[in-house]
Every structure is written in structure tokens, then in C-alpha cells.
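Q: What does the assembly look like in three dimensions?
Context provided by user:
Components: two
Sequences:
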Amino acid sequence: MNVSILSVIVLGLSVLGFFLARRRALSKVNGKAYKLHSRPIYYGQVVFLFTAVPALLVLALWLFIQPIAIERQVSAEIPASAIPKGSTPQLVMSDVRRIAGGIDAMLHAGNITKAEFNDMSVDTTSIRSQLASVGIALGADVTPAVFEAAKSYRNMKNVGHTAMAAVVLVVALAGLLLSLARITPAQRARNIAEHFILALLIGASLVAILTTLGIVLSLLFETIHFFRIYPARDFFLSLTWNPQFRGGSDLGMIPLLWGTLYISLVALVVAVPVGMLIAIYLAEYAGKNLRSFAKPAIEVLAGIPTIVYGLFALITVGPFIRDWIAVPTGLGNSSSSVLTAGLVMGIMLIPFVSSLSDDIINAVPQSLRDGSYGLGATRSETIKKVILPAALPGVVGAILLAASRAIGETMIVVMGAGAAARLDLNPLEAMTTVTVKIVSQLTGDTEFASPETLVAFALGLTLFIFTLALNVLALYIVRKYREQYE
Amino acid sequence: MNDIKVSARDVQVWYADNHAIKDVSVEIEDKTVTAFIGPSGCGKSTFLRCINRMNDTIDICRVEGDILLDGEDIYDPQVDPVQLRAKVGMVFQKPNPFPKSIYDNVAYGPRIHGLASGRSELDAVVEKSLRRAALWDEVKDRLNASGTGLSGGQQQRLCIARAVATEPEVLLMDEPASALDPIATAQIEELIDELREKFAVVIVTHSMQQAARVSQKTAFFHLGNLVEYGETSQIFTNPVDPRTESYITGRIG
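A: Here is the predicted structure of the complete assembly.
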């Protein structure tokens, strides 16, 4: 039975349960609703929740676990002799899955009948050519072991799905009947329903937290892997980044971290002053009409995909800086440079700084402005001495958020600053960042288990911890700022 | 009889199309506490804010007529409202200390206007102002603590200290005690009586008892008109206008 049909049936049962429960609760007190502990609708809610939620949870878990279980079972069935030289069990398993899928497609298209399929064996039919007719191309002829594995894979999948439908329906019906049977006038239905919903809300927030945890763990495991085959000291302290395909690479992260920090610094030097001035203008000087137009116009900058900024850096800013600054001063001759990437990234960050700061400045109470004006301060004195100091913690929070954006940026760096890892102070030289190297190491041709690839995870984890620390700092500062008024 | 400090003639105020103050003429004496009373929305706060041109910060507000401070028109184009506000200090309804230290709050005005040269002189100004606001003894040991950490009554006295630190000639107070408890209110009222020795004090209040307690002159506003102005004792015991009488006895407002 199809998953969506199954969920619809479960939901239908739950809705039915809702109405049945309401009627049952009312009939228990002969229609006198005031004799019930809770309003009738809550009795309905309880039955609805107990019918729908456990059944859907079972469904979700089943969908998650079944493929893993079947995979394990089937790969155990394949004898080691069936795995050709130079291949791996994973490759054979993927063949098994494709053959199973191909048989499904053939049955569905009517190329073969069920009876024909049952008689099918490797000796009598050319399975490879038959599968090719439904668009499944196999690299080699199908061996008997693999074909048998595919058959049992199909079987288990079908059995599993039927069992799933049965179990889910039983759970739903059990929930429906049990919760219906437990309805009494004294049942604290409202409290039960509210607790149930509270648990759902907590569950939803757990999803976000667990995802973060999952990300960290997956990075962590590969990182540990990496440090087993590459010394941590070299990774953190070596000043060279020089990966080799043959192995024996230098994988020091310092040049990359330096590039990240340098480019981010240039970006912030551009974005913070411009963004702050914009925010001050918008919040304190601009008229209502201008503000309602200018603020969204500036925020458009935040909506431009970073790859477009990258193009801008590549074809406009980069050559401009090369021809007008780098070459005349003799400091470089590359159109990729820290300055290019930093400038363009700074432009991208302007709306982050300006928009958040504008909101924060607006949140400074009018009474403080009045107090300052009332003492004979001018508008600029008021901004400098009262509003900005009051808004400062929030503004710092905004800047830190912009900084973590800058540190995580990839596209602008690839196209603006190049991909050469270099430890250099010259802003007109090409340099690169941690994120760019993560991409290039993971998409390279080296083996997955080699340090050259695994280093990407170590870099990612470092970057994650870095931006996490920045975000925590930003949140801490912003929270402290909230306590300032009232 | 004290000198006339502020003299208003035929003042009109509009908020967009709303005629908020109509033909108000009043003469405020120096070294006197003048109370503005009247029901909510009668224009007393609006008129108060005309005296230091705080209404300039509101775009849609328009003021006509003459207001003279020591005989000079404060709405003359030659007059800088910023300078005017240094001479006419203001204390607001809700205590609004800056999120700075107590010291920096009081020193804010003197620093801007350059009233003290050097740290020791500034220290002296801060101490004098805090003493005048009857706050010195409570905060002298923690001048570097944040002004927002004080209690409501202390915050309001800090705002008064901040206002008197710029050496104003007139002190405007917009319901300065309405957000405070009775004890803090009593302290503020006592303070207002002392401030009278140095300044002309104008206070807007909703509490008629407060007006009777602290003021020598009272002006009763109603629907944007100045209904009656005179000695406080006369207004409260023997009002001329029937509207004043009804308000004071609690029949309108």
C-alpha cells in the first residue's frame, strides 16, 4: 500500500475518532456538556492525537529503518565469491538494487507477467538485455547469486511494505479504540490534549537541535578519521598548504585561515562603516517616504545570489583593481586578489549591517532622544553621545553576524580571490579561504579515505566551531543589550 | 511680585488640522512654581513643549503667536532652538536616564555646552547638581553605576539633576511624578519647592492636590483654551470661571 494513501487513511481514522469521541463524551452525560471535565472538543482532540500521532510516528520510523535492515540482510546473502575482483560489496549491492528496480519496472510496463518472472532465471533468459529495454543499463551480465539477491531484495521490500501498512493501521485502530474506550466524564481531556501538544512542540524543537548535533557528529567522525592518518600538529601549525595526488601532501590550515580572516576583514572594513552610516541616515535623518523606499532598495542587495556577486568580482572589479591599482603600484598583476573579493563581499554585507543596525537604532526609545534634545543637544550630538552608545551592543551583534556570513562565503572568493593558498600580507595577491579549499578537496579525484579528501572535514569542523563561537558571542551581546531598557 | 520670565501672547498650535492650543496668553513669573492643570488632551503639555520648542521635533506641528523669554521672541528665526533648550530645561513624565553612568548622565549637558573646564570643575558641577536634586547622599558612592539601575524616584531625581546641571533659567516639568509612588512623589514635590529659589518652574500635573501643594500660580486649560490663570490659592478656593470650579470639584475631567 502506498505511503500517501496510508497516511490519508490514518488521518481519516483520526478525524472519524474526533467526531466519535465528541459524541461519546456528550452521550455519557446525556448531552449536558457542563458535566464534563473538559469541553467536548478536547475529548475529540485526545482521540484524534492518539490515533494519528503514534501511527504516523511508526510509519516514519519504518520508512527510515526498513531500507537499512533489508540492505544488511541481502548483502549478508551474497557469497563472497559472487563479488568480482576489483569490485566491492557496495557496488554489487547497487547492482542488486537496480536489478530489483528494473524488474519492478518490467512488471509495471507489462513486459513480463508475474508467472514469467517466477520462472525467470539467469540460465534461461538474458536479464541484461531485458532490463536494458526498460532503461536499466548494467555493466556486466547478471550472475545467479546477484539475481537471487535481487529477487529476495524485491521480496523483502514487498513483504516489508505490506507489514508496514498492517502495523500502521493496527496502531491507528488501537489508538482510536483504546482512547475512545477511556472516555469518561471525569477524564481530564483538556490537560491530556495540552500535554500531548506540548510534547509535540518540544519534539519539533528537538529536531532542529538534533540536526545540529548530527552535523557536528558527522563532521567529527570524519575529522577523527583524518587525524588518525595525518598529524594534528601539522594540520594546525604547518604554514604550507600543498595537497598532492600521490600523497605526502602538506595540509597546514594556517594559510587558509589567514586568507579567510584577511578577506573577511577587508569585507567588514567596507561593510561596517558604509552600513552604519546608512543606518544612521535611515533611522535618524531620512524622511518617512524616502525611508520606505530606500530601505527595501538596499535590502535587495541581500537577495542577490552570491554567484552573481562573484561574476561582478570576476569581470568588473578584479580587472579594474588590476589595471588601476595593482599594476601601476607594481604590487601584483593578478585580477584575483584579496581586495577584489573583500570589496565585493563587503558590498554584499552592507544590507546585513545597515538593516539590522537601523532596526536597533530605531529601537532606542524616543524618550532618550527627547531627554537629550531637552538638554540643548543637537541632533548629531544626540546620535553620537546617546543613541549610538545605547545601540552599540546591538550593532556589535549585527557586525558579528555579518562577520560569520563573511567567513562562510565561498563563491565570491573563488571568483574574486582565486584558489591559491598563500600566506601573504599583500592585498593585491590572489589568496584563498577555508571554504574554497573544502570544495576543491571534496570534488577532487583522490580517494575518499585519503587525507587529501578527509582534510575537508577537519577544515569544515574548524570553520563550524569558529562561526559558532562568533554567533554565540553575537547572541550573548544582543541579549545583554535587550536588558538595557525597561 | 517677581519679574515676568516667560510671556506668551495669542499662541496657537496645530497638529496637522487639529487646533490644539487656541489663543493662549500667559505670563510666567520668575522664582515661582506655575502649575498647568486640566483634563487629558486639554493642551497643557503641548503648551509646555512650546516654551522650549520641543514641538519643533514633531513634523506636523505648527506654532503661531509670540512667546518671549526675558523679552526676546523665542520663535524668532535668529534664535537657535538648541541654545534655547539649554536655557529652558525639561523633565519628562517618564524618567529617561541615558544608559550611561550616573556621573555621565549629569555631566552630559555641561560637557556639551562647555560649562566646565577640567575634571575637577566638572566634578563640582555634578556634585552641586546632584545635591540640588537631593540625590547626592544616595549615589555619591556609586557615581559610576548605571543610571538605569536606580529606582524610579531616583531616576527622576537624576533627570532633574541632569536638567539643572546645564544652569537653565526655566525648568519645565511634564507630569514629573505621575510614574512614581507616593513617597518618591513627596520627595520630588519637596525638591520642586527648593528649585523655586533659583528657577522659574513650570509643572504640568494631573493631580490637583499636587498643584495646590507645590505651586504659587495655577493655569487651568480646557479644550485648548486657557480658561483661568491666577494665584493658586484663589483658583482652588474661589475660581471665577464655572468650568474651573466644575473641574476642581471633580464634575468634569
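Follow-up: The two ends of chain A are 59 Å apart (CA to CA).
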